[in-house]
Amino acid sequence: MSVGAQDPSVSSFYVNDSFYGDLIARFQDWDHDRNGICDPVERDAFRLLLEREARFLDQHKYDDWLAMLTRECVYWAPARPGGGDPRTEIAVMFDDRRRLEDRVFRLRSEFAWSQAPASRTVRMISNVEVFEYGEKDRRMLRSNFIINEFWDNEIRQLVGWCGYDMQNIDGRWLIRAKQINLINCDRCIRNPSIIL
Amino acid sequence: MSYDWEGLVQEDRVHRALYTDPAIFNAEMTKIFGGTWVYIAHESEIPNVNDYVTRKLGLRPVIVLRDSNNILRVLYNRCTHRGTTLCRHEKGNARAFQCPYHGWNFLNSGKLRGVPWADGYSADIKDEKFNLAQAPRVESYRGFIFATLNLEAPGLLNWLGPMTKPIDEWLDRNPGGKIVVCEANRFKYKGNWKLAYDNSSDGYHVIYSHRSLLEMESRLSDEANKGMAYYKNSPDSLAMYVQYMGNGHHFKDKRPNLQARPGGLWAIESTHPGKEYAEAEFRRKYGERADSLLDLAGSEPVNINIFPNLSLLGNHIQVFQPISVNETDAVWYGTRIEDVNGDIGDALGTINALRMRTQEGFPNFGEVDDLANFEQIQVGLQCEEDEWIYMNRGHGIPDRVKTNADGTITAPATDEVFMREYIKEWKRLMKGPTPLSIKREP
Known about the structure:
heterodimer; A: 196 residues; alpha+beta; Nuclear Transport Factor 2, Chain: A; 4 helices; 7 strands; 23% helix; 37% strand; B: 442 residues; Rieske Iron-sulfur Protein; Naphthalene 1,2-dioxygenase Alpha Subunit, Chain A, domain 1; 26% helix
């Protein structure tokens, strides 16, 4: 059976050496202003996409959110500023498609005590930048976020920036990789159990 | 402070004050996190001369380092002049530390090298009282660095006692008996530190506290023996067991449930990113060796709990760091392997990548639920008149608990005997005189 014929919701063949290598290369350097896209129409389209993503997560519309990602996706929150190397270092989170669907399944199970009752969140997205990177059907995005999270009678803020590797498939931009960089990713965090 | 320790720690229950009383917490920071051996860092975090990490010994800020002469030291991170912390970074490499406040400069042996405008002192600044304080006893067992301020404590090896066997086995399944610490999943919870230590060999909570994880692990497959599914039916009838090992240490051993063959460990591993890729690639490239290579990425089914603050579980080094009576940090350091003997070759990268992913599973989908429950114990214990916490599972049932020839105590996997026993060691330390001391370089 060819690798492409595997269902990434069920098995994980695509998280292989070349996948890691490509991921690290794409996320290691954001210092490419020359590739920045200034076209306001394109930038606005990506800004709207990120705002929609934030809304889906705030509303716990996880199926809609999962549909914004490619089948062979990755959701990665490094445990060290700058990202590190997920092949040799633990990450706060490093989910492929199947593990993301696990994460959603767990949150819906009613037995995820860390989310019973569930957090309420309001996400703010800003500083959206769009970059060309490689092929015409790919873009890299960068945005800053504040997640206001209400849980256990307190409101706290989770703060950081996200990098996105976007791919255009059949005219639709999808998230191949989302890297969530919490500014306190290398410190102890209370109840890190929502989807960031 | 005078407490009726016998009244607070009874045969099958303990008083809520152990978890809620700030004065007891303060005494613990002296008598436990000072009076006994405390895990402080792993040697792989400071592999080179002049490497350091900053940590806490109880609440004391310390710099754990390998000095210029390759000696492991635990220096107090406190300028002898005005008390400022000298080093504010998590880790680094430094031959000396200069105080950011008035510029006093200390060698990494702790010795004061110099002060600005020394002619303004009538005191002899070469006096050893101006050298940094440091833990008088620092010992390492196979890479695990411990410190104590108690000159009368037994040697580290004696204090670990029979725990060295599970530690050795945990290390020796890796090439060359060697692991390297590599980042961590880091948690904070609003609860007493002992709630985590109580939980560390607890086989009774698994099917309830981790119900979401167990259901998640079986959502794609009804195979019975994945991950923690051992606990689903009658865990006390299985070969796994819990063992009290003396000096506050305890050990949960689930390995007897495994099939004793290469690949037996990997067979119970649940799903992880890259799992099927690694399996297919290893079987194609390495044939029969694939099973034992995959086992290196699998989570060793043990909980090796070393009183008061260290737990080796799966492939993690978990450390409990008290912050206050009702706040604790729990750090799950990851470990990777090295190709020490040269027999792993080009499989190493894939093994380690997979080993990272297997380690991220439980903290993300299991530990968060335990921590929520620890926090809610702390809330429940605010019921002042409802005074007792029970640790009586298995207590008083004939033939359930067995005392072995070496003094260790074995019981079925969901038994709370390990809690009843470790808290006796806690009581002994809290009751006793605590002859703590520091040292300074002469």
